[in-house]
Amino acid sequence: MNNNTNNNTENNIINNVNSENSSQSKDIFKLGKYEFTSRFILGSGKYSLELIDAAVKQAEAQIVTLALRRANDGGIANILDYIPENVHLLPNTSGARNAEEAVRIARLSRELCHSDMVKIEVIRDTKYLLPDNYETAKATEILAKEGFVVMPYMYPDLNAARDMANAGAACIMPLAAPIGSNRGVCTKDFIQILIDEIDLPIIVDAGIGRPSQACEVMEMGAAAVMANTAIATAGDIPRMAAAFKNAINAGREAYLSGLGRVKKDGASASSPLTGYLHQ
Fold it and tell me: Given 30, 119, 145, 263, which residue is catalytic?
């Protein structure tokens, strides 16, 4: 074999390795027809308008939620003016008490925000603000048939998640704890069931209060995390947004790497003991 052949073979190997590394580094996150590289969805419900832009940039978020009632189309302080142009808007149906209201808000949001993505929130419970899974599934079916990329927020229940998946949901968004509580992953076991059983991205939403908790659900295999209150109530909002971004990325890398085994009984030395003990 001549030198040219050797060089060509080596170049092919290098190109293949580089191609694989490039593909792995992208780690694409799909929602319907859209593709994203960021797995951090940022809520905008509790920020002052002046801090939204800084938080989005520090989070490197590609999706930002938007309650229709905050858009104030044509107003002086229009929230749309504070969200970078390259960010996808995710209007939500906050305030809807049933499927009919959610559908009406979603249709209006498509006209106002020019986005076919919608997060379905149907909440009748005024004390704990728990989502109504039945009405959410109904709204999901209607809007999916109309071409929306539907992202339903729900209490983590396997049967309800299956109904939403069958209705055309692009993902499932189970709560980790009551919305706005910052209590952490109270529904961990139920979220894990959804991750294991539902063939859609599982985006953990509501209740995540710390970056470490966001990292935890990503290690479990969640596709993404949405956070709002934890960042909006932090002392340094842009810095906390960056902390969440880093935690989510770390959790994703840990999940892809394969977490180390857990030894339930006894211990296992990490260094050889031969020559020191048990001689």
Answer: 119
